[in-house]
Automatic annotation (TrEMBL):
The chain crosses the membrane at residues 5-22, 28-46, 66-99. This is UPF0716 protein FxsA. Keywords: Membrane, Transmembrane, Transmembrane helix. GO terms for cellular component: membrane.
């Protein structure tokens, strides 16, 4: 538990320093506009793709490369919504195909482990 607190503290300090440097470099209004635009884009991505992923899961489709792309895009949207320059840049990086191809096997392994252990919870919202 202490490691998580340390990681969050280090992340917060790095994010704060990034904000200060960018504030001095590009100014307040462009920085604010970037945050608003990244949050709006993240919300748009999440809303649009969440429907697709829940429909595929409801239909019982297996984890396919298309579905893993959707999971990567949802993760990118979540990272874009979280306030911060570093999380926004990580979210934008997930739109690059070679980053997604690196992430997909790891996400697939994680999902398979969760399903095999019985730790996977599915809520039917009908």
């Amino acid at each position: 538990m202490k490691k998580i607190i340390y990681y969050w503290a280090i992340y917060g300090i790095i994010e704060l320093l990034t904000y200060i440097l960018l504030f001095r470099w590009i100014g307040f209004w462009p920085l604010l506009l970037f945050q608003i635009a990244s949050t709006a884009f993240g919300i748009f991505i999440i809303k649009r793709l969440w429907r697709a992923i829940t429909q595929n899961m409801r239909e019982g489709k297996i984890i396919s490369p298309y579905l893993l792309d959707t999971v990567c895009f949802i993760l990118a949207g979540i990272l874009l919504v979280i306030p911060g320059i570093i999380t926004s840049l990580c979210g934008l990086l997930l739109f690059l195909p070679f980053i997604r191809s690196w992430m997909k096997p790891r996400i697939n392994r994680w999902l398979e482990q969760r399903m095999n252990q019985g730790n996977f919870t599915y809520f039917d919202m009908r």
